[in-house]
C-alpha cells in the first residue's frame, strides 16, 4: 500500500511539491531491454508544459527531465536501455517565485484542498498548492513516456472534446488537428469557438470545465481481469487521480444508461483476416474488464479551475469568515493541460496490465 | 497485488462462480471488537436478492450467508464480535439448474465477456456467466454490511435515479420511498413511469440501462489522500468493478465540465456550532481526494443487460458466424440490483480509508 | 496490504481458526490451464495430518479438502483445470471437542501468543489456539499443492535434520528414507535415535525443538530480484510465518559467517552441456536475491512446543499470578509436522516469483 | 507490488546504482507533524560511511543527504516537519572513478550476482556492482533515521557479535563500547582480537563473515499479527534484503531448536508496577508474531565478502572459462558496515507495524 504510487508490475511512485527543490518519480518494473531516451520523455513533457499559449498559466518551467538510475547507454546517440532496476526521473523546480504566501497560508480557498489538508494532516505546504499542485503531473507524463515503450504497437492519444457547454463535432475529428491548436482539439472549427470563449473567460477572471477523451490503439486483447483488476477499473482510478477530475467513463459511458440492449450490443463477424471483428465499439474496447483488441476509449470530466478573480466567501484556519480572491498565474481551463496527463495515465495502466497478463498467462 | 481483492487496511477478497458449490469472501482487517450479526448481513443480502419482483431475474437464491471465522459470540442473541482475524463469509449456491449450456459453451454472446475470457484465459467457465456472474456481487454486499459497522455514525444509502432516458425529479427525493417500490426509486411518480416502461421492455425481450446514486453521510473529514489514494479514486475503482458499469462520477461529475468557477465553488462560512460549514456540495464531499465532512455523493452508469431475446450477430470459438439469442432468467435492467451493491462498495471504501487515516495520523 | 495473505502474482489468503466451522484459503493467480486434482492436494494434506504416529498430537482430523471455485473439470477422472479465477479451498473442522476452555480463557500460557493477542486485539478466540493454531497450516499445504503444478519441472522436498541436539549424519542422506519413518528423517539411524529420545520427552510431558531443511530442485535461474523482492527474502518471510519458527537460513546460512571468501566461493566452470556449472552450492541456489538454477536450500528452526505438562509461572488477564499446565493433545515436537508446511511455503514462493519473472521479463 | 519497496503504511522505495548520478529513496507514510532534520539523518549515514577505518572499503563518499520534498521548516534551526506527503531523500554519487570496468563487464565473479543478473535481465550495469552495490544501503539508513522518529520512546541499536569464528563474550556487553571501536563491537577485548584477525585477513586479500545483533527497545506490546504480517516475519524479510545476508533469527533463534519446552518458556509474573513482567526473553520480544513489550532481538549472518584477491575459477558471458581476481577497494568484512543498516531495517519494520496497529485497532 502506498498513498503515492500506482500500478503493480509497472509501478510508479511520485514525490514533490510545487515549491520544493525538485519533483520526481520512481518507475519500477520496466522490462529490461526497453529502450527510450531523455529526449523522448522530454517531448511529452513539452506538450504538458505551461506558458505555451495565453490559455494556460504563465508560470514558466523548463521542466527538464533527468534519468538518474536504472539504465545503461544504448548504441544510438542518447538512447537508454532499461536494466530492469528502478528508473528515477527528476525535474528541478526552477520558477519558485519567492512571493509572499502569507495571505493564503491560513485561508481556505473554496474548491481547493486547503481545508481538507488541514483536516487530514494538521500541517500543510500552502506554497503553490503543495502536493496538489498540477506540477506533480509532470512526473506522470514522464513515467507515461516510458510506459509507451513497453507494449509493442501501442499508441495512446488524447484530445479535448468539450469546453464548458461547447462540444466538438465528432464528424470532423482529425487527429492531426490536435497538434495545430492550443487546445488539443481534433476539430478546427470548434477550436476557434473555444478560443473566443476562453478569451472572454480569461478576461473576466473566471474559469470553465472541460472533457478529455483518451484513445489507446494497439492494446492487445486479453488485458485485464473480470472484477477487481479490471482494465477499465484501473483506467478509471488512474484518471480520477488527476487533479480536478470529477467523472470518468469508458466507451459510451453514461450514455449507455439510455440505450437498449439492442443498441448497445457490439455485434461480431469474422473479418477478412479470419479473425473475429467487432462491428461497433460501444464498449470502448473493454468487455468484462478485459480488452477486446479494439481501441480503448475513456473520457474524463475536469471541473473549472477553482482559482478565480471573483471573491468567494470562505473561512480561515482561525475560524474567521473571510473573502478569498486568487491572484496570480492560473489556467482558465485546467482541462487543456490535462490532455497529455490523461494519455500518460492510460499508457501506464495498459503497460501494467500487459505485464500482469504476461505474468499470469505466459502470453503477450 | 491480487486480481480478486480490494481495499488495503480493510481488505476484501472474493471467490466463486455462478455455478460452483458456493461463493464467498474473506474480509481482512475488521477492527477487533466490531460487532455485527449474520441477521444484519442477511438484511442487506435480501435487498439485493433476485426474484423479488417481475423486474429482476427469476432465479431463486436464498443467499443465506454463514460466518465461518474471525468472530466470537457476543452477549446479545446472534451478536458476533470480530476478533481481528479474517472473517470468512460464505453463501451456498443452491439454484444451479442442471441445464444444458452446450449452446453457449463456444458462442460469444455480444456484450458479454465470453470472447475476452477466451482471449485472456483460453479456458472459461461458461455456466451462468462464470466469474462475471452478478452472483459474485452478493459477497460484496455481505462485506459491505461488515464495513458499515466500522465507521461510527456512517450511513450509506443508494437510489436509482434514471432508467433509460427517464430520470427522477430530484425535488421529490424521499429516502423512505426507496424501500416502497421495486426500483429503489426515491420518487414515487417516476417509479410508476418506470414500472410501465420496464413492463414493455421485458415483454419485448429487450433491456435498458440505468444510473445509480450513492450517498454516504457521516463520513468524517480528512479521509483520503491527495493523489493516488484519493477517496474518490477508490470509490471510482470500487464502483467500476461492478458488472456492466461504464461510468462513475463524484458530486456534480460530468456536469461540472459545463460550469464556471463561480458556479462550481462551494463557499464556506462559520456555522452555528462555530465550525466551518459548506454552503453547497458541488464537490460531492471530496476536495483534493480528501473528505470534507459533507455527504459523499457518487453516481454510476449501468449499461443495458446484454442478454436479450432479439438475435444478434456474433461468432463462435471455432470461427463460425452465428446468431445469438439469450434465453433464460435475466434482468431487463441490471441497474436495479446494482443499488445495494453500490452502497456496499462505497461503504467498503470509506471503512478502508477510515482505518488508513487512523493509521497514518493517529486521529479518527 | 493484508495481514493474512502472502505472495503477489500467486497470492494466497487464508482464514479460519482451530475451533470454527471450517478453515480455508483463496488461491489467486493460478495460471489458466494449470491442472491438478483434489486427490493430489489431499496427498500432501495427509502427510501433514496429525495423529499418524505417537509423536504428533492425537487430535483426529480427516482434513478433507474441497475445491469450491476456479476450476472446470478436466478430461481425466478427478482432474481439475484452473480457469484463472480464484480457487477457494476449504476444510471442515470436524473434531472440535466441546471441551471446557474456561481454564485457559483468561490465563496466559507462557510461550503462547495469548498475552500478545490480548495486547493487540483486546479480544481473543482462546479455543484451541484460535488463529495461531497449527490447524491453519493445512490450508497452506493445500495451496502449496497447487503451486507445485505451476513451475514445470519443479520438485520441492523437505526433511527434518535435527531434533534437540541430535542432528542427522548428512553422509547418510536418503530422500527415500524420509517417507519411511514418522519424522521425515532422511537418515534411518538418526530416526531411531530420535524415536527413543522423543519417547522420553513425551513421557515426561516435555517438548523439544527441531530444524527442517527444504530443498527445491528445478527452480529455473533468474527468479527473484536484487533487493526487496529477493527470492531468499520471500522464502525467509514465508518460512518465518510458520508457527514457532525462530530462525531461517539459506545455503550455508549462519555457518557462512565463519567462512573465508575462498571457502564460501561457489566456483563456476563450463559443464558438459556447454552451460555454466557451479562446482559447489554454499549460496543455496540464490545469488544477489536471484536463483542460480542450482537447488534452492533453506533451513528453519522450530522452537519446542510451548504446551508442556510441567507447571510454569504466569499471570491471567485479571492480573493474578497463576501456574499454567497444559493438558490435552499436543505434539512433543511441532517441528515434525512443520516439514510438509515448509515445503509448501517454499513452493508458493517459487511459483510466485516464476510468474513475476515471466511478467517482468517475458521469459520463463 | 514492487521489487524495490518495503513496508506498507510506512513504505520506502529505493533507487539508484553505484555508478549513476545519485541514489535515493522515497519515504511514504510518515505521519504529519513528525520532526527530524538533515543533520539527524546525516549522523546515521556517517556511521555507515565507508573509509573510516582500514577495515572497510577505502572508497570515499561524503554521502551527504538532501531532503527534497514532504517537509515544511520547523521552528528550530534545521528542524523539518513532515507534512504527510512523500519525503524524497537523495545522495549524490561523487566518487565514481572513471575506471575501466571492461575486465568484469562480461566475467561472472563467483559469489556475486553477475551471473544471476544476466539470467534474469539479460542486461546489467556491471559498474561497481550496479543495483547490488552496498551503496544502495545508504538510502535505507536515511529512511531508518526518519522511522526512528515515528514511534515514541523507540531505541534501536545494533552490534557486531561475531567475526569468523570469534564471538564476543556476552557477559562483557557494553553498549557504550560500540562507538569506541571500528567494529561496532560491544566487548572491548574481542574488538582487539578482531583487529588482529582482520589485519591478517586484509593483508592476505581474503575476507571473512560476521554476525550482527539488533536490539529494539521501547517497542510497545501488540505490534504485528499472528501469521503473514508477523513482526518477526517482516524483520526477517527486511534483514534478508541486506546484501550478503544468509540467515536471520529472532530471540534464541536456531539455538531454540536445541531447548526443551521448560528451558524455552518465558515465564511471567506481576511486576512492581502491577503489569505483567516476563522473567526471561528467549522469544526475543515477539510471541505469535506480535510484540510483547520486551526488547525485540534479531540476529543476522553476513557471508564473507565475495571480492577477494585469490583467483577463483569462473566463466564469462561468452562461455569461456576464466580466472577472476577482484582488485579495487573492498571491505574484508562487509558485516561491519551492515550494523547501522540492520538497525535501520528493524526501525523501519517497527515504524510500519506501529502505524498498521494504530490503523487496525485505534490504539498506540
TrEMBL record, chains A, B, C, D:
Gene3D superfamilies, A to Z: Chorismate synthase AroC (3.60.150.10)
List of residues binding FMN: 131-133, 243-244, 288, 303-307, 329
Catalytic activity: 5-O-(1-carboxyvinyl)-3-phosphoshikimate = chorismate + phosphate
Pfam family, one: Chorismate_synt
Keywords: Amino-acid biosynthesis, Aromatic amino acid biosynthesis, FAD, Flavoprotein, FMN, Lyase, NADP
Cofactor note: Reduced FMN (FMNH(2)).
KW Amino-acid biosynthesis (keyword) present: yes
This enzyme's EC code(s): 4.2.3.5
Subunit and partners: Homotetramer.
Protein family: Belongs to the chorismate synthase family.
UniProt-recorded name of the protein: Chorismate synthase
Source organism per UniProt: Aurantimonas manganoxydans (strain ATCC BAA-1229 / DSM 21871 / SI85-9A1)
Encoding gene (name): aroC
